[in-house]
Specification:
Its EC number is 1.16.1.1. It is an enzyme of class 1 (oxidoreductase). Its cofactor is FAD. The protein has about 475 residues and is an alpha/beta fold. The protein folds into three domains: about 220 residues, FAD/NAD(P)-binding domain (3-Layer(bba) Sandwich), CATH 3.50.50.60; about 110 residues, 3-Layer(bba) Sandwich (FAD/NAD(P)-binding domain); about 120 residues, Enolase-like, domain 1 (2-Layer Sandwich). The chain is built from 13 helices and 24 strands. A six-stranded antiparallel sheet has the order 19-20-23-22-21-24, sandwiched between helices. It has a five-stranded parallel sheet with strand order 4-3-2-8-18, covered by helices on one side. It has a four-stranded mixed sheet with strand order 1-7-6-5, with no helix packed on it. A hairpin with a 6-residue loop joins β13 and β14. It is globular and about 70 Å long. The protein starts with a strand and ends in a 6-residue tail after the last strand. About 40% of the residues are buried. The chain binds flavin-adenine dinucleotide and nicotinamide-adenine-dinucleotide (NAD).
Protein backbone atom coordinates (compact mmCIF):
# COMPACT_ATOMS: atom_id res chain seq x y z
CA UNK A 1 0.00 0.00 0.00
CA UNK A 2 1.43 3.38 -1.02
CA UNK A 3 1.24 6.30 1.44
CA UNK A 4 -1.99 8.20 2.00
CA UNK A 5 -2.84 10.60 -0.84
CA UNK A 6 -4.91 13.69 -0.08
CA UNK A 7 -7.51 15.09 -2.48
CA UNK A 8 -10.27 17.68 -2.38
CA UNK A 9 -12.69 15.17 -3.90
CA UNK A 10 -12.68 11.49 -4.85
CA UNK A 11 -14.94 10.15 -7.61
CA UNK A 12 -15.55 6.39 -7.66
CA UNK A 13 -16.77 5.20 -11.08
CA UNK A 14 -16.13 6.92 -14.41
CA UNK A 15 -19.64 6.63 -15.88
CA UNK A 16 -21.59 9.50 -17.39
CA UNK A 17 -21.42 11.78 -14.34
CA UNK A 18 -18.12 11.36 -12.47
CA UNK A 19 -15.62 12.32 -15.18
CA UNK A 20 -17.48 15.50 -16.10
CA UNK A 21 -17.94 16.58 -12.49
CA UNK A 22 -14.26 15.81 -11.89
CA UNK A 23 -13.30 18.02 -14.84
CA UNK A 24 -15.42 20.89 -13.53
CA UNK A 25 -13.91 20.61 -10.06
CA UNK A 26 -10.31 20.61 -11.28
CA UNK A 27 -11.11 23.64 -13.45
CA UNK A 28 -12.08 25.34 -10.16
CA UNK A 29 -8.64 24.52 -8.79
CA UNK A 30 -9.52 21.41 -6.82
CA UNK A 31 -7.42 18.24 -6.67
CA UNK A 32 -9.55 15.27 -7.71
CA UNK A 33 -9.02 11.49 -7.90
CA UNK A 34 -11.12 9.57 -10.45
CA UNK A 35 -11.19 5.83 -9.74
CA UNK A 36 -12.37 3.43 -12.48
CA UNK A 37 -11.96 -0.32 -12.41
CA UNK A 38 -12.74 -0.92 -16.10
CA UNK A 39 -12.99 1.60 -18.91
CA UNK A 40 -13.53 5.35 -18.80
CA UNK A 41 -17.01 6.21 -20.04
CA UNK A 42 -18.67 3.32 -18.21
CA UNK A 43 -21.64 1.40 -19.55
CA UNK A 44 -22.78 4.00 -22.07
CA UNK A 45 -19.56 4.38 -24.00
CA UNK A 46 -18.26 0.82 -23.74
CA UNK A 47 -21.25 -1.55 -23.63
CA UNK A 48 -24.40 0.56 -23.91
CA UNK A 49 -25.47 3.58 -25.93
CA UNK A 50 -22.43 4.11 -28.16
CA UNK A 51 -22.03 0.55 -29.49
CA UNK A 52 -25.76 -0.14 -29.79
CA UNK A 53 -26.54 3.08 -31.60
CA UNK A 54 -23.61 2.49 -33.96
CA UNK A 55 -24.70 -1.07 -34.74
CA UNK A 56 -28.28 0.17 -35.14
CA UNK A 57 -27.10 2.23 -38.09
CA UNK A 58 -25.71 -0.85 -39.87
CA UNK A 59 -29.03 -2.59 -39.21
CA UNK A 60 -30.97 0.37 -40.58
CA UNK A 61 -28.84 0.56 -43.70
CA UNK A 62 -29.48 -3.16 -44.31
CA UNK A 63 -33.20 -2.63 -43.75
CA UNK A 64 -33.40 0.34 -46.11
CA UNK A 65 -31.27 -1.48 -48.70
CA UNK A 66 -33.80 -4.33 -48.66
CA UNK A 67 -36.56 -1.75 -49.18
CA UNK A 68 -34.55 0.05 -51.90
CA UNK A 69 -36.80 -0.93 -54.79
CA UNK A 70 -39.76 0.84 -53.08
CA UNK A 71 -37.79 4.05 -53.60
CA UNK A 72 -36.81 3.27 -57.17
CA UNK A 73 -33.30 2.12 -56.33
CA UNK A 74 -31.93 -1.22 -57.52
CA UNK A 75 -29.37 -2.89 -55.27
CA UNK A 76 -29.31 -6.58 -56.09
CA UNK A 77 -29.45 -8.97 -53.16
CA UNK A 78 -28.44 -7.43 -49.84
CA UNK A 79 -25.65 -9.13 -47.88
CA UNK A 80 -24.68 -8.14 -44.35
CA UNK A 81 -21.03 -8.46 -43.42
CA UNK A 82 -21.55 -8.97 -39.69
CA UNK A 83 -17.87 -8.74 -38.81
CA UNK A 84 -17.49 -5.48 -40.68
CA UNK A 85 -20.55 -4.05 -38.94
CA UNK A 86 -19.16 -5.13 -35.55
CA UNK A 87 -15.75 -3.70 -36.39
CA UNK A 88 -17.32 -0.36 -37.33
CA UNK A 89 -19.04 -0.42 -33.95
CA UNK A 90 -15.80 -1.23 -32.12
CA UNK A 91 -13.96 1.58 -33.91
CA UNK A 92 -16.60 4.04 -32.76
CA UNK A 93 -16.36 2.76 -29.16
CA UNK A 94 -12.56 3.02 -29.22
CA UNK A 95 -12.75 6.51 -30.69
CA UNK A 96 -15.20 7.64 -27.97
CA UNK A 97 -13.22 5.99 -25.18
CA UNK A 98 -9.83 7.25 -26.32
CA UNK A 99 -11.24 10.75 -26.85
CA UNK A 100 -12.41 10.74 -23.25
CA UNK A 101 -9.09 9.30 -22.08
CA UNK A 102 -7.12 11.97 -23.96
CA UNK A 103 -9.29 14.81 -22.63
CA UNK A 104 -9.28 13.62 -19.02
CA UNK A 105 -5.63 12.61 -19.15
CA UNK A 106 -4.46 16.18 -19.81
CA UNK A 107 -6.54 17.83 -17.09
CA UNK A 108 -4.26 19.32 -14.49
CA UNK A 109 -5.31 18.32 -11.00
CA UNK A 110 -7.10 15.12 -12.06
CA UNK A 111 -5.51 11.81 -11.04
CA UNK A 112 -6.99 8.75 -12.77
CA UNK A 113 -6.60 5.50 -10.85
CA UNK A 114 -7.40 2.21 -12.60
CA UNK A 115 -8.66 0.02 -9.74
CA UNK A 116 -11.78 -0.97 -7.85
CA UNK A 117 -12.52 1.71 -5.28
CA UNK A 118 -14.30 1.35 -1.98
CA UNK A 119 -14.95 3.44 1.09
CA UNK A 120 -13.03 2.41 4.20
CA UNK A 121 -14.33 4.67 6.94
CA UNK A 122 -13.43 8.21 7.95
CA UNK A 123 -10.62 10.14 9.55
CA UNK A 124 -12.37 13.11 11.15
CA UNK A 125 -13.84 15.22 8.35
CA UNK A 126 -12.10 13.14 5.69
CA UNK A 127 -13.38 9.96 3.99
CA UNK A 128 -10.91 7.14 3.41
CA UNK A 129 -11.07 5.35 0.06
CA UNK A 130 -9.06 2.30 -0.94
CA UNK A 131 -8.27 1.64 -4.60
CA UNK A 132 -5.81 -1.15 -5.37
CA UNK A 133 -2.51 -0.11 -3.79
CA UNK A 134 -3.74 3.38 -3.07
CA UNK A 135 -5.17 4.85 0.10
CA UNK A 136 -6.83 8.16 -0.55
CA UNK A 137 -8.55 10.69 1.67
CA UNK A 138 -10.86 13.57 0.81
CA UNK A 139 -13.69 15.52 2.44
CA UNK A 140 -15.94 14.89 -0.58
CA UNK A 141 -16.76 11.57 -2.28
CA UNK A 142 -18.86 11.17 -5.41
CA UNK A 143 -20.22 7.71 -6.22
CA UNK A 144 -21.00 6.99 -9.90
CA UNK A 145 -20.67 3.22 -10.15
CA UNK A 146 -23.66 2.42 -12.38
CA UNK A 147 -25.38 -0.91 -12.85
CA UNK A 148 -24.72 -4.41 -14.16
CA UNK A 149 -27.11 -6.94 -15.74
CA UNK A 150 -29.62 -8.59 -13.41
CA UNK A 151 -29.69 -12.36 -13.92
CA UNK A 152 -33.10 -13.81 -13.04
CA UNK A 153 -33.29 -17.00 -10.98
CA UNK A 154 -34.21 -19.21 -13.94
CA UNK A 155 -33.24 -22.87 -13.36
CA UNK A 156 -30.43 -23.96 -15.68
CA UNK A 157 -29.20 -20.44 -16.48
CA UNK A 158 -26.06 -20.81 -14.36
CA UNK A 159 -24.99 -23.77 -16.50
CA UNK A 160 -25.42 -22.07 -19.88
CA UNK A 161 -23.09 -19.64 -21.70
CA UNK A 162 -25.88 -17.08 -22.10
CA UNK A 163 -25.31 -13.55 -23.45
CA UNK A 164 -25.82 -10.20 -21.75
CA UNK A 165 -25.50 -6.80 -23.45
CA UNK A 166 -21.71 -6.92 -23.19
CA UNK A 167 -21.21 -10.47 -24.49
CA UNK A 168 -23.72 -9.88 -27.29
CA UNK A 169 -21.67 -6.92 -28.48
CA UNK A 170 -18.50 -9.05 -28.47
CA UNK A 171 -19.88 -11.73 -30.84
CA UNK A 172 -17.82 -12.51 -33.93
CA UNK A 173 -20.48 -14.54 -35.73
CA UNK A 174 -24.10 -13.60 -36.36
CA UNK A 175 -26.48 -15.77 -34.28
CA UNK A 176 -28.70 -17.82 -36.57
CA UNK A 177 -31.54 -17.65 -34.04
CA UNK A 178 -31.40 -15.31 -31.06
CA UNK A 179 -33.78 -15.99 -28.19
CA UNK A 180 -34.18 -13.04 -25.81
CA UNK A 181 -35.51 -13.24 -22.27
CA UNK A 182 -37.05 -9.88 -21.34
CA UNK A 183 -39.06 -7.36 -23.33
CA UNK A 184 -37.62 -4.00 -22.25
CA UNK A 185 -35.30 -1.46 -23.89
CA UNK A 186 -32.26 -3.69 -24.36
CA UNK A 187 -34.32 -6.57 -25.68
CA UNK A 188 -36.27 -4.56 -28.22
CA UNK A 189 -33.37 -2.50 -29.52
CA UNK A 190 -31.19 -5.60 -29.90
CA UNK A 191 -34.04 -7.75 -31.29
CA UNK A 192 -34.60 -5.35 -34.16
CA UNK A 193 -30.90 -4.78 -34.81
CA UNK A 194 -30.10 -8.50 -34.96
CA UNK A 195 -33.21 -9.28 -37.02
CA UNK A 196 -32.16 -6.68 -39.57
CA UNK A 197 -28.60 -8.00 -39.57
CA UNK A 198 -30.03 -11.42 -40.49
CA UNK A 199 -30.80 -13.40 -37.32
CA UNK A 200 -34.12 -15.00 -36.54
CA UNK A 201 -35.28 -13.50 -33.24
CA UNK A 202 -37.76 -14.61 -30.56
CA UNK A 203 -38.63 -12.51 -27.48
CA UNK A 204 -39.92 -14.08 -24.24
CA UNK A 205 -41.48 -11.61 -21.79
CA UNK A 206 -43.21 -12.56 -18.53
CA UNK A 207 -45.37 -9.42 -18.41
CA UNK A 208 -48.59 -9.04 -20.38
CA UNK A 209 -46.93 -6.71 -22.90
CA UNK A 210 -43.60 -5.44 -24.17
CA UNK A 211 -42.37 -2.06 -22.85
CA UNK A 212 -44.29 -2.48 -19.60
CA UNK A 213 -44.18 1.24 -18.68
CA UNK A 214 -45.77 2.46 -21.89
CA UNK A 215 -49.46 3.01 -22.65
CA UNK A 216 -51.22 -0.12 -23.90
CA UNK A 217 -51.81 1.19 -27.42
CA UNK A 218 -48.18 2.26 -27.71
CA UNK A 219 -46.94 -1.15 -26.53
CA UNK A 220 -49.29 -2.76 -29.07
CA UNK A 221 -47.91 -0.53 -31.84
CA UNK A 222 -44.31 -1.42 -30.87
CA UNK A 223 -45.21 -5.12 -30.90
CA UNK A 224 -46.87 -4.75 -34.30
CA UNK A 225 -43.82 -2.98 -35.68
CA UNK A 226 -41.50 -5.76 -34.50
CA UNK A 227 -43.68 -8.67 -35.59
CA UNK A 228 -44.04 -7.02 -39.03
CA UNK A 229 -40.27 -7.44 -39.37
CA UNK A 230 -40.53 -11.14 -38.54
CA UNK A 231 -39.62 -10.99 -34.83
CA UNK A 232 -41.47 -13.58 -32.77
CA UNK A 233 -43.00 -11.93 -29.70
CA UNK A 234 -44.21 -14.07 -26.79
CA UNK A 235 -45.71 -12.19 -23.83
CA UNK A 236 -47.21 -13.53 -20.60
CA UNK A 237 -44.86 -16.51 -20.62
CA UNK A 238 -43.44 -18.27 -17.58
CA UNK A 239 -40.00 -19.73 -18.07
CA UNK A 240 -39.58 -23.04 -16.23
CA UNK A 241 -35.95 -23.71 -17.10
CA UNK A 242 -33.29 -23.30 -19.76
CA UNK A 243 -30.84 -25.88 -21.03
CA UNK A 244 -29.13 -27.18 -24.12
CA UNK A 245 -31.23 -27.98 -27.18
CA UNK A 246 -31.50 -31.64 -28.27
CA UNK A 247 -28.67 -31.33 -30.79
CA UNK A 248 -26.44 -29.73 -28.12
CA UNK A 249 -25.74 -26.92 -30.58
CA UNK A 250 -28.00 -24.34 -29.03
CA UNK A 251 -30.33 -23.45 -26.20
CA UNK A 252 -33.84 -24.52 -25.28
CA UNK A 253 -36.13 -22.40 -23.14
CA UNK A 254 -38.83 -24.50 -21.57
CA UNK A 255 -42.05 -22.57 -20.93
CA UNK A 256 -44.88 -23.43 -18.54
CA UNK A 257 -47.61 -25.23 -20.46
CA UNK A 258 -45.26 -27.59 -22.25
CA UNK A 259 -44.05 -25.30 -25.06
CA UNK A 260 -40.35 -24.73 -25.66
CA UNK A 261 -38.42 -22.18 -27.70
CA UNK A 262 -35.04 -23.09 -29.20
CA UNK A 263 -32.26 -20.82 -30.38
CA UNK A 264 -28.61 -20.78 -31.32
CA UNK A 265 -27.95 -18.03 -28.72
CA UNK A 266 -29.70 -16.78 -25.60
CA UNK A 267 -29.68 -13.12 -24.56
CA UNK A 268 -30.83 -12.29 -21.05
CA UNK A 269 -32.08 -8.69 -20.81
CA UNK A 270 -34.22 -8.62 -17.68
CA UNK A 271 -33.13 -5.40 -16.01
CA UNK A 272 -30.11 -4.11 -14.11
CA UNK A 273 -28.82 -4.07 -10.54
CA UNK A 274 -26.82 -1.23 -8.96
CA UNK A 275 -23.08 -1.60 -8.27
CA UNK A 276 -23.39 -0.60 -4.64
CA UNK A 277 -22.63 -3.95 -2.97
CA UNK A 278 -18.80 -3.71 -3.00
CA UNK A 279 -18.48 -0.03 -2.13
CA UNK A 280 -17.83 -0.31 1.62
CA UNK A 281 -20.89 1.84 2.28
CA UNK A 282 -21.29 0.34 5.76
CA UNK A 283 -17.91 1.82 6.78
CA UNK A 284 -19.38 5.31 6.61
CA UNK A 285 -22.88 4.38 7.81
CA UNK A 286 -24.62 4.50 4.42
CA UNK A 287 -27.52 2.16 3.69
CA UNK A 288 -29.12 1.14 0.41
CA UNK A 289 -32.79 0.54 -0.50
CA UNK A 290 -34.26 -2.96 -0.69
CA UNK A 291 -33.16 -3.12 -4.35
CA UNK A 292 -29.65 -1.84 -3.63
CA UNK A 293 -30.02 1.79 -4.72
CA UNK A 294 -28.58 4.72 -2.79
CA UNK A 295 -31.18 7.14 -1.52
CA UNK A 296 -30.45 10.83 -2.08
CA UNK A 297 -32.23 14.11 -1.53
CA UNK A 298 -33.12 16.32 -4.49
CA UNK A 299 -29.60 17.76 -4.45
CA UNK A 300 -28.31 14.19 -4.91
CA UNK A 301 -26.66 14.18 -1.49
CA UNK A 302 -26.75 10.87 0.37
CA UNK A 303 -27.63 10.56 4.05
CA UNK A 304 -23.93 11.16 4.86
CA UNK A 305 -22.97 14.82 4.24
CA UNK A 306 -20.00 14.97 1.88
CA UNK A 307 -21.05 11.91 -0.17
CA UNK A 308 -23.09 12.22 -3.36
CA UNK A 309 -24.62 9.39 -5.45
CA UNK A 310 -24.95 10.16 -9.16
CA UNK A 311 -26.32 8.29 -12.17
CA UNK A 312 -28.16 5.00 -12.25
CA UNK A 313 -27.30 4.08 -8.62
CA UNK A 314 -29.60 6.79 -7.23
CA UNK A 315 -32.63 5.44 -9.14
CA UNK A 316 -33.59 8.92 -10.28
CA UNK A 317 -33.15 7.90 -13.90
CA UNK A 318 -31.57 5.04 -15.78
CA UNK A 319 -30.17 6.96 -18.70
CA UNK A 320 -27.02 8.68 -19.78
CA UNK A 321 -28.78 12.01 -19.92
CA UNK A 322 -30.06 11.68 -16.32
CA UNK A 323 -26.58 10.72 -15.12
CA UNK A 324 -24.99 13.67 -16.92
CA UNK A 325 -27.73 15.99 -15.66
CA UNK A 326 -27.05 14.77 -12.11
CA UNK A 327 -23.46 15.93 -12.27
CA UNK A 328 -24.51 19.29 -13.70
CA UNK A 329 -26.79 19.81 -10.68
CA UNK A 330 -24.06 18.90 -8.19
CA UNK A 331 -21.43 20.99 -10.01
CA UNK A 332 -23.64 24.05 -9.82
CA UNK A 333 -24.68 23.44 -6.21
CA UNK A 334 -21.05 23.04 -5.13
CA UNK A 335 -20.52 26.54 -6.52
CA UNK A 336 -23.37 27.92 -4.41
CA UNK A 337 -26.29 27.01 -6.70
CA UNK A 338 -29.70 25.75 -5.63
CA UNK A 339 -30.52 23.24 -8.35
CA UNK A 340 -32.75 20.27 -7.68
CA UNK A 341 -33.28 16.97 -9.47
CA UNK A 342 -36.94 17.19 -8.49
CA UNK A 343 -37.46 19.99 -10.99
CA UNK A 344 -36.65 17.93 -14.07
CA UNK A 345 -39.21 16.33 -16.33
CA UNK A 346 -38.52 12.68 -17.20
CA UNK A 347 -37.73 12.21 -20.87
CA UNK A 348 -36.23 9.34 -22.87
CA UNK A 349 -36.18 7.48 -26.14
CA UNK A 350 -35.97 3.81 -26.97
CA UNK A 351 -33.94 3.55 -30.14
CA UNK A 352 -35.90 1.04 -32.12
CA UNK A 353 -36.38 2.19 -35.71
CA UNK A 354 -38.51 4.25 -35.68
CA UNK A 355 -37.78 5.26 -32.09
CA UNK A 356 -40.25 5.46 -29.23
CA UNK A 357 -39.91 8.67 -27.23
CA UNK A 358 -41.66 9.81 -24.10
CA UNK A 359 -41.79 12.82 -21.76
CA UNK A 360 -43.78 13.46 -18.58
CA UNK A 361 -46.97 11.60 -17.71
CA UNK A 362 -48.44 8.48 -19.31
CA UNK A 363 -52.10 8.24 -20.34
CA UNK A 364 -52.92 6.05 -17.30
CA UNK A 365 -51.43 8.70 -14.94
CA UNK A 366 -53.47 11.40 -16.64
CA UNK A 367 -56.69 9.36 -16.37
CA UNK A 368 -56.09 9.08 -12.61
CA UNK A 369 -55.83 12.87 -12.43
CA UNK A 370 -59.16 13.09 -14.30
CA UNK A 371 -60.79 11.01 -11.53
CA UNK A 372 -59.49 13.66 -9.12
CA UNK A 373 -61.36 16.32 -11.09
CA UNK A 374 -58.58 17.67 -13.33
CA UNK A 375 -59.59 18.81 -16.84
CA UNK A 376 -57.18 17.07 -19.17
CA UNK A 377 -57.33 16.59 -22.91
CA UNK A 378 -55.50 14.18 -25.18
CA UNK A 379 -54.63 14.40 -28.84
CA UNK A 380 -53.64 11.31 -30.83
CA UNK A 381 -52.41 11.45 -34.41
CA UNK A 382 -51.27 8.56 -36.59
CA UNK A 383 -47.91 8.95 -38.33
CA UNK A 384 -49.54 7.64 -41.53
CA UNK A 385 -51.39 10.98 -41.62
CA UNK A 386 -48.22 13.09 -41.37
CA UNK A 387 -47.05 14.24 -44.79
CA UNK A 388 -43.34 14.11 -44.03
CA UNK A 389 -43.70 10.49 -42.85
CA UNK A 390 -45.49 9.63 -46.12
CA UNK A 391 -42.77 11.30 -48.15
CA UNK A 392 -40.12 9.33 -46.25
CA UNK A 393 -42.08 6.10 -46.72
CA UNK A 394 -41.89 5.55 -42.94
CA UNK A 395 -45.40 5.82 -41.59
CA UNK A 396 -45.26 3.51 -38.56
CA UNK A 397 -46.43 4.92 -35.23
CA UNK A 398 -48.39 7.74 -33.64
CA UNK A 399 -48.07 10.91 -31.60
CA UNK A 400 -49.94 11.42 -28.32
CA UNK A 401 -50.10 14.69 -26.39
CA UNK A 402 -51.61 15.27 -22.94
CA UNK A 403 -52.64 18.83 -22.03
CA UNK A 404 -53.88 20.34 -18.78
CA UNK A 405 -56.87 22.44 -19.89
CA UNK A 406 -56.75 24.77 -16.89
CA UNK A 407 -53.09 25.77 -17.03
CA UNK A 408 -52.44 25.08 -20.73
CA UNK A 409 -49.33 23.10 -19.79
CA UNK A 410 -48.33 19.89 -21.50
CA UNK A 411 -48.50 17.03 -19.01
CA UNK A 412 -46.80 14.49 -21.24
CA UNK A 413 -46.22 13.20 -24.73
CA UNK A 414 -45.42 9.88 -26.36
CA UNK A 415 -44.19 9.51 -29.90
CA UNK A 416 -43.52 6.40 -31.90
CA UNK A 417 -42.32 7.41 -35.33
CA UNK A 418 -39.52 8.82 -37.43
CA UNK A 419 -37.22 11.17 -35.55
CA UNK A 420 -39.37 11.05 -32.44
CA UNK A 421 -36.15 10.97 -30.38
CA UNK A 422 -35.58 14.55 -31.59
CA UNK A 423 -39.18 15.78 -31.91
CA UNK A 424 -40.06 14.85 -28.30
CA UNK A 425 -37.54 17.44 -27.18
CA UNK A 426 -39.71 20.24 -28.55
CA UNK A 427 -42.37 19.26 -26.03
CA UNK A 428 -39.71 18.57 -23.38
CA UNK A 429 -38.31 22.08 -23.78
CA UNK A 430 -41.74 23.70 -23.54
CA UNK A 431 -42.49 21.66 -20.40
CA UNK A 432 -39.13 22.49 -18.79
CA UNK A 433 -39.54 26.19 -19.53
CA UNK A 434 -43.06 26.31 -18.09
CA UNK A 435 -44.63 27.27 -21.44
CA UNK A 436 -48.10 26.30 -22.62
CA UNK A 437 -49.46 24.64 -25.76
CA UNK A 438 -50.12 28.11 -27.19
CA UNK A 439 -46.36 28.56 -27.53
CA UNK A 440 -46.20 25.55 -29.83
CA UNK A 441 -49.28 26.66 -31.76
CA UNK A 442 -47.96 30.17 -32.36
CA UNK A 443 -44.31 29.36 -33.12
CA UNK A 444 -43.33 29.30 -36.81
CA UNK A 445 -42.52 25.72 -37.82
CA UNK A 446 -40.36 24.45 -40.68
CA UNK A 447 -42.03 22.66 -43.59
CA UNK A 448 -42.05 19.74 -44.29
CA UNK A 449 -41.35 18.26 -40.85
CA UNK A 450 -43.19 16.11 -38.34
CA UNK A 451 -42.93 18.93 -35.78
CA UNK A 452 -44.97 21.27 -38.01
CA UNK A 453 -47.95 18.98 -37.32
CA UNK A 454 -47.92 19.61 -33.58
CA UNK A 455 -50.29 22.65 -33.80
CA UNK A 456 -52.73 20.63 -35.92
CA UNK A 457 -52.57 17.75 -33.46
CA UNK A 458 -53.10 20.11 -30.51
CA UNK A 459 -56.19 21.60 -32.24
CA UNK A 460 -57.73 18.14 -32.51
CA UNK A 461 -57.43 17.29 -28.80
CA UNK A 462 -60.40 15.84 -26.98
CA UNK A 463 -61.29 15.67 -23.27
CA UNK A 464 -59.73 12.68 -21.57
CA UNK A 465 -62.14 10.52 -19.59
CA UNK A 466 -61.40 8.62 -16.37
CA UNK A 467 -61.56 5.25 -18.10
CA UNK A 468 -60.30 4.21 -21.50
CA UNK A 469 -63.44 2.14 -22.31
C1 LIG B 1 -27.19 -1.98 -23.93
C2 LIG B 1 -27.48 -0.64 -23.31
C3 LIG B 1 -27.89 0.41 -24.11
C4 LIG B 1 -28.15 1.65 -23.54
N1 LIG B 1 -28.58 2.67 -24.36
C5 LIG B 1 -28.86 3.86 -23.82
C6 LIG B 1 -29.27 4.95 -24.65
O1 LIG B 1 -29.39 4.82 -25.85
N2 LIG B 1 -29.53 6.13 -24.06
C7 LIG B 1 -29.40 6.32 -22.71
O2 LIG B 1 -29.65 7.43 -22.23
N3 LIG B 1 -29.01 5.32 -21.91
C8 LIG B 1 -28.74 4.10 -22.42
N4 LIG B 1 -28.32 3.09 -21.61
C9 LIG B 1 -28.19 3.35 -20.16
C10 LIG B 1 -26.87 4.08 -19.89
O3 LIG B 1 -25.79 3.32 -20.37
C11 LIG B 1 -26.68 4.38 -18.40
O4 LIG B 1 -27.85 4.96 -17.88
C12 LIG B 1 -25.50 5.32 -18.28
O5 LIG B 1 -24.32 4.64 -18.63
C13 LIG B 1 -25.37 6.03 -16.95
O6 LIG B 1 -24.77 5.27 -16.04
P1 LIG B 1 -23.88 5.80 -14.84
O7 LIG B 1 -23.23 7.11 -15.08
O8 LIG B 1 -24.74 5.70 -13.66
O9 LIG B 1 -22.74 4.70 -14.74
P2 LIG B 1 -22.11 3.71 -15.78
O10 LIG B 1 -22.07 4.27 -17.15
O11 LIG B 1 -22.74 2.38 -15.59
O12 LIG B 1 -20.59 3.68 -15.26
C14 LIG B 1 -20.24 3.24 -13.99
C15 LIG B 1 -18.75 2.98 -13.97
O13 LIG B 1 -18.35 2.71 -12.64
C16 LIG B 1 -17.36 1.68 -12.67
N5 LIG B 1 -17.35 1.05 -11.35
C17 LIG B 1 -18.34 0.34 -10.76
N6 LIG B 1 -17.96 0.01 -9.50
C18 LIG B 1 -16.72 0.51 -9.31
C19 LIG B 1 -15.80 0.52 -8.22
N7 LIG B 1 -16.12 -0.04 -7.06
N8 LIG B 1 -14.61 1.11 -8.38
C20 LIG B 1 -14.27 1.70 -9.56
N9 LIG B 1 -15.10 1.75 -10.62
C21 LIG B 1 -16.31 1.16 -10.50
C22 LIG B 1 -17.83 0.76 -13.79
O14 LIG B 1 -16.75 -0.01 -14.29
C23 LIG B 1 -18.32 1.79 -14.81
O15 LIG B 1 -17.29 2.16 -15.69
C24 LIG B 1 -28.01 1.84 -22.15
C25 LIG B 1 -27.58 0.79 -21.34
C26 LIG B 1 -27.32 -0.44 -21.91
C27 LIG B 1 -26.86 -1.56 -21.02
N1 LIG C 1 -32.65 3.77 -25.24
C1 LIG C 1 -32.24 3.75 -23.98
O1 LIG C 1 -32.20 4.76 -23.32
C2 LIG C 1 -31.80 2.45 -23.37
C3 LIG C 1 -31.49 1.36 -24.17
C4 LIG C 1 -31.09 0.17 -23.57
C5 LIG C 1 -31.00 0.12 -22.19
N2 LIG C 1 -31.29 1.19 -21.44
C6 LIG C 1 -31.23 1.13 -19.98
O2 LIG C 1 -30.82 -0.16 -19.60
C7 LIG C 1 -31.63 -0.61 -18.53
C8 LIG C 1 -31.95 -2.08 -18.60
O3 LIG C 1 -32.71 -2.46 -19.67
P1 LIG C 1 -33.40 -3.91 -19.73
O4 LIG C 1 -34.04 -3.98 -21.06
O5 LIG C 1 -32.48 -5.00 -19.32
O6 LIG C 1 -34.45 -3.85 -18.54
P2 LIG C 1 -35.97 -3.39 -18.47
O7 LIG C 1 -36.22 -3.23 -17.02
O8 LIG C 1 -36.24 -2.26 -19.38
O9 LIG C 1 -36.79 -4.64 -19.03
C9 LIG C 1 -36.68 -5.92 -18.47
C10 LIG C 1 -37.86 -6.77 -18.90
O10 LIG C 1 -37.58 -8.12 -18.57
C11 LIG C 1 -38.76 -8.72 -18.08
N3 LIG C 1 -38.39 -9.87 -17.25
C12 LIG C 1 -37.83 -9.86 -16.01
N4 LIG C 1 -37.60 -11.13 -15.59
C13 LIG C 1 -38.01 -11.96 -16.59
C14 LIG C 1 -38.02 -13.37 -16.76
N5 LIG C 1 -37.56 -14.20 -15.81
N6 LIG C 1 -38.51 -13.88 -17.91
C15 LIG C 1 -38.95 -13.07 -18.88
N7 LIG C 1 -38.99 -11.71 -18.77
C16 LIG C 1 -38.50 -11.17 -17.65
C17 LIG C 1 -39.45 -7.60 -17.31
O11 LIG C 1 -40.84 -7.87 -17.18
C18 LIG C 1 -39.16 -6.39 -18.20
O12 LIG C 1 -40.16 -6.20 -19.18
C19 LIG C 1 -32.83 0.28 -18.43
O13 LIG C 1 -32.79 0.84 -17.14
C20 LIG C 1 -32.63 1.36 -19.46
O14 LIG C 1 -32.73 2.63 -18.90
C21 LIG C 1 -31.70 2.36 -22.01
Amino acid sequence: MSGEQRFDAIVIGAGQAGPFLGATLVARGMKVALIEERDLGGTCVNRGCTPTKTLRKSARVAHMARRASEFGVQTGSVQVNFRAAMERMQRRVEEARSGLQAWLGQLEGLTIIKARGRLAGREGEQFVVLAGEHQLVAPKVVLNTGTRPFVPPVPGLDELPFLDNERLLALRELPSRLVIIGGGYISLEMAQIFRRLGSEVAILETGPRLTAREDEDIAAAVTGMLTAEGIEVNTGVRIERVGKADNDAGVRVQLAGGRSVDGSHLLVATGRIPNTDCLGLETVGLEVSARGYLVTNDRLETAVPGIWALGDINQRGAFTHTSYHDQDIVAENLAGGQRSAAARVGIYAMFTDPPLAHVGLYEADARKLVTEGRRISQAVHAMKDVSRAKEEGETVGKIKLLIDEDSGHFLGATMLGIQSDEIIQAIGLVMASGGTWKLVRDALPVHPTVTEFLPTIIDRRKPLTASSG
